[in-house]
Write a structure and sequence with these properties.
Layout lengths: L3 H18 L4 H8 L1 H22 L6 E5 L14 H15 L11 H4 L7 E5 L9
Parallel strand pairs: 1-2
Length: about 130
């Protein structure tokens, strides 16, 4: 067991480091698929760019998505507060609306198609039947 433990630790550390270096596998996927797949991928990006540019002139309507959060816990110490839940909803909204601090760190290939989809998340106050 003592001989295996350092090997397991080295394996875990290696995987963590590799995961941090290669955060996005998009280019790796393109490289594996070959030139035809890369060409199809570029065509798809061009289509998204054209659609995005055409939609910018249209008036946008904000879509509100009610969210239900289930907190599973055994003791009261494990429960989390409503403030923590709301803060995570706020982070989700920042990310979807591209207001997060690292929005400009998106890979260059995604920069011109990244946009605010006009979606906001709120904690649900009624169930699908209209009950509180």
């Amino acid at each position: 067991m003592k001989k295996i433990l350092p090997f397991i630790l080295l394996l875990i550390i290696t995987q963590v480091l590799v995961a941090q270096i290669n955060r996005c596998g998009h280019q790796h996927l393109l490289d594996m698929q070959g030139p035809q797949f890369q060409q199809l991928s570029e065509q798809a990006y061009d289509q998204v760019r054209r659609t995005s540019n055409n939609n910018q002139s249209r008036s946008k309507q904000l879509l509100t998505v009610p969210v239900v959060v289930h907190i599973v816990y055994q003791t009261s110490e494990q429960n989390i507060s409503d403030d923590i839940v709301q803060s995570q909803i706020d982070v989700l909204n920042e990310d979807f609306q591209r207001l997060n601090a690292d929005a400009r760190e998106a890979r260059a290939i995604f920069q011109e198609v990244a946009a605010n989809p006009e979606i906001q998340f709120v904690l649900a106050d009624t169930d699908p039947d209209g009950n509180p």
